[in-house]
């Protein structure tokens, strides 16, 4: 394993690489498991380089652990807005997830529907391209249209365009209070209709999920609100009336219980330790139930108001067939040995794939960065 | 500011190009009479003008594809144009270029409230996107000052912001998908009514690429339900340091206002003389707006006013009525017009870290005296996006050049302070040659390599964004 301690050492390691490199942060997300090559770990590039709570700005080296980032922010009553998932439970991995890994995989949780994805909060990157050149894009200010936005391009590129060395974020205050309303017993189409109603209201819903089999075995539709205490009370009351037509509405204001429920959802805890392949499918929310229906063997969880389907499928089943021409994409997040023939990332239409491979050839002309990953 | 000399080979086959364009487009969609093309000689950066070879006004993605194929075959440069409101010269033509105007592409293609998006043709104006959905209580959040006129295609090209992006984000954060035509006439679909990309985030790359990667013809935009209500509070301070500290304290207290606007004394004076909004005579004025129900607004404004009082404001005026809210916003909204009364002006757009605000304002004041040109500052304080307005006299020889030098100094200062050249207007031609102050040669090279992928012949808006020297070889190839 190559373990550079600085950005310059990363550049040297890439420039002098004679063969493929497997780019790794904390190694907890295992997207690059199938890539053969020398592991280049950025875990040694650690520590915050800037944190200005009054400007809502945080800059960290890519190998900084999520634990450190989250603790530092929490001490100032702030957080990353996009609620990134911790993959360890679902994937059964060990180690410390890093902020660079979160960016490389554009990891975004339930709050994505309101606060945006990881890439929406990301305002700057430094990285080393496949030639070993140190590059920079964006910066530390939240409004910046100077030149092309390679910041967005790097988010979710899984180390195939460059090795991230430093990332900058816009952060937000932690909400003073959290609460949720829920409705039991809804079939998926009704649940999505209810969530659409809530998300189309002025009450700034920060989470909308449907568990076809909730904690007590019944379907459970949950809608979360965060903010000042009085505001959360007001919004939950209003949402209770909005959702009344779908059935009896329960309100939960217990912060620990509510947080635990959304953390389980974020980490897809319900599929942890169970046999099968895990797929993450992004679709138009109202088409979520039909896509799930097309996977009769699947156990599913709906997040993002129905637009994100987590599916546990028998090993080797291709979930992509269920999209059947609909807009959207499916990622094979946890693959068993029987699923090895299935691409992890959704195949792109030829015109888009041509642009993607063109970009990759520019950023990594020698093809040394995670070759084989992402098409 | 220089533009490349027009390609003689293109000028000499002008008639062929026009005939070929006419052959693939409906009658009346090709404008070539020099009298009529004059209307397209500039955008909102009026200091630079040049009539194009021709203007085409397509009505569909297919027509854009057909005309780009012609231009690609004839190797004619193409300049996309939304509504021509760019302050950075993003739509400035060259004499050998064809302007592709989106004015006829203003249809709403699909409205989906359940899934909270609207799909429109890219020539539709920003405000009319909201107009199409507001009967159901929805709106499109990005609100550039030019929203009455500016086109969605231009918003996407420049990744436009607005006064409310502290809470709602900029165009990028509200864009879900595009249909885009590449220079060779091929059509690509990127994103759609689902969230996030299957592979690379090409949508994020295209947004803000200033019409250099492709021509966006249709867009899927996120819509939101309007808040229950909104209300501003106005506060005046005797120093910009204190105002800056107040902004920082508000943000740290966990309140997220929808907008925090800042005006300095020269701007307050100009605005008062023009709009009589009743602003206090002070060094720095803040307008802070929050949203929610009446009770929620009361709670948030209560907290904000409590913070403001700790900073000894010379004025603290919470709006008590819709009329008073309108009056508080009146001055801010007429600031550009008010400054325009003082002469010609150049509007800059650098962004700085909020903590650098007092230092940057002080230095701008010093430069103003050095250059002998007046400057007023309007500022999206929550996100550090400055709008210094430099007053000059276009009829006075040398004044424009002096103003440009002054502007360049301010933008370099923004970069030095940890910020950037442009927060929401784009680089265009205006900041093109300053890019070397923000980016290393390698940083620029990788961006130009991106354009190589989308537009290998560098025919789309070629003389923008990158310093001419840096892009020379590619443009000449």
UniProtKB/TrEMBL annotation, chain A:
<keyword id="KW-0274">FAD</keyword>
<dbReference type="InterPro" id="IPR016164">
    <property type="entry name" value="FAD-linked_Oxase-like_C"/>
</dbReference>
<dbReference type="GO" id="GO:0003824">
    <property type="term" value="F:catalytic activity"/>
</dbReference>
<dbReference type="InterPro" id="IPR016169">
    <property type="entry name" value="FAD-bd_PCMH_sub2"/>
</dbReference>
<dbReference type="GO" id="GO:0071949">
    <property type="term" value="F:FAD binding"/>
</dbReference>
<keyword id="KW-0285">Flavoprotein</keyword>
<feature type="domain" description="FAD-binding PCMH-type">
    <location>
        <begin position="1"/>
        <end position="174"/>
    </location>
</feature>
<dbReference type="InterPro" id="IPR016166">
    <property type="entry name" value="FAD-bd_PCMH"/>
</dbReference>
<dbReference type="Pfam" id="PF01565">
    <property type="entry name" value="FAD_binding_4"/>
</dbReference>
<protein>
    <submittedName>
        <fullName>Glycolate oxidase FAD binding subunit</fullName>
    </submittedName>
</protein>
<dbReference type="InterPro" id="IPR006094">
    <property type="entry name" value="Oxid_FAD_bind_N"/>
</dbReference>
<dbReference type="InterPro" id="IPR036318">
    <property type="entry name" value="FAD-bd_PCMH-like_sf"/>
</dbReference>
UniProtKB/TrEMBL annotation, chain B:
<dbReference type="Pfam" id="PF01565">
    <property type="entry name" value="FAD_binding_4"/>
</dbReference>
<dbReference type="Pfam" id="PF02913">
    <property type="entry name" value="FAD-oxidase_C"/>
</dbReference>
<feature type="domain" description="FAD-binding PCMH-type">
    <location>
        <begin position="48"/>
        <end position="226"/>
    </location>
</feature>
<keyword id="KW-0285">Flavoprotein</keyword>
<dbReference type="InterPro" id="IPR016164">
    <property type="entry name" value="FAD-linked_Oxase-like_C"/>
</dbReference>
<dbReference type="GO" id="GO:0071949">
    <property type="term" value="F:FAD binding"/>
</dbReference>
<dbReference type="InterPro" id="IPR004113">
    <property type="entry name" value="FAD-bd_oxidored_4_C"/>
</dbReference>
<dbReference type="InterPro" id="IPR036318">
    <property type="entry name" value="FAD-bd_PCMH-like_sf"/>
</dbReference>
<dbReference type="InterPro" id="IPR016169">
    <property type="entry name" value="FAD-bd_PCMH_sub2"/>
</dbReference>
<dbReference type="InterPro" id="IPR051914">
    <property type="entry name" value="FAD-linked_OxidoTrans_Type4"/>
</dbReference>
<dbReference type="GO" id="GO:0016491">
    <property type="term" value="F:oxidoreductase activity"/>
</dbReference>
<dbReference type="InterPro" id="IPR006094">
    <property type="entry name" value="Oxid_FAD_bind_N"/>
</dbReference>
<keyword id="KW-0274">FAD</keyword>
<keyword id="KW-0560">Oxidoreductase</keyword>
<protein>
    <submittedName>
        <fullName>Glycolate oxidase</fullName>
    </submittedName>
</protein>
<dbReference type="InterPro" id="IPR016166">
    <property type="entry name" value="FAD-bd_PCMH"/>
</dbReference>
<dbReference type="InterPro" id="IPR016171">
    <property type="entry name" value="Vanillyl_alc_oxidase_C-sub2"/>
</dbReference>
